[in-house]
Amino acid sequence: MALVWNERVKESAFHDAYEAILVRHGVDYSKIRASRNDEASILAFFRGGEVRRATFAHAQKFDCEGLQGRLMSSSYAPRAGHPAHEPMLADLRKVFDAYQQDRLVEFPYETTMWYGRLGRQCGAATPC
Asked: Which of 68, 92, 105, 126 falls between 20 and 30 A from 29, CA-CA?
């Protein structure tokens, strides 16, 4: 089994400005941000089986349209017609304009992968 996801690297002025947009305009963003998986949850998922963790750096570069697409693909982005939709896009454009270099912004990530074998399955036939 492998579990893989990207976490935004939170060490830049661009990230801080982007995060402020999510906090200000995102729908349920605070709740989603607080529900990150922790190591104890991951280990419980593998139910005592063999598990390893690997991380590596990864980055995407976006033009303004790509950055907007990345934001709008998030579950917490307000959809068209929502009162926060247009203000969010306007703030995103300001952030893009402030931090772009050669009409691109870099979105750094740390990719995390937990992988291994699941432990025994619990159920009626094999109680834990």
From this structure: 105
Classify residue 128: in a domain, yes or no: no
Over residues 33-76, the pLDDT tens digits come to 655 668 888 888 898 888 999 999 999 999 999 999 999 999 99
Q: Rounded to 5 degrees, what angle do the CA atoms 106, 52, 30 make? A: 50
Distance between alpha carbon 116 and the CA centroid of its chain, in Å?
A: 23
- The model's pTM is 0.77
In the chain, the number of structural domains is 1
**Domain span at residue 39?**
2-116
pLDDT digits (tens, 9 = 90+) for 64-122: 999 999 999 999 999 999 999 999 999 999 999 999 999 999 999 999 999 999 987 66
Cβ–Cβ < 8 Å for 92, 67? yes
> CA-CA distance, 121 to 115, in Å (whole number)?
17
